Amino acid sequence: MEEQQIEAALNSVLERLAAIEHERWSHWQKYLHKSGLRQSDGSLIISSELIERWERQISTAYAELSEAEKDSDRDQVRKYLPVIKKALLTALAAQTTSS
């Protein structure tokens, strides 16, 4: 597969991948908002325990995360794989028919 075909395949899935990313972000925001204490002005207070955990995760390289934390990241990435797979198969099929 040539670079131009790869580029076209990736561009063809940009919007679908962006939609998955928005879903991921929305899910995180719902979790974050449920985890905080809503104030009368609409702001949220997040517990120091959550902040400490998240700051530790932020400063930890992926290779150093616990297996449970890695599994959480893997679960998120798995949501993207079907879209990428379909784009690659479509590009390969197009290459086969044009050869």
UniProtKB/TrEMBL annotation:
Organism taxonomic ancestry: Bacteria, Pseudomonadati, Pseudomonadota, Alphaproteobacteria, Hyphomicrobiales
Name of the molecule in the record: Uncharacterized protein
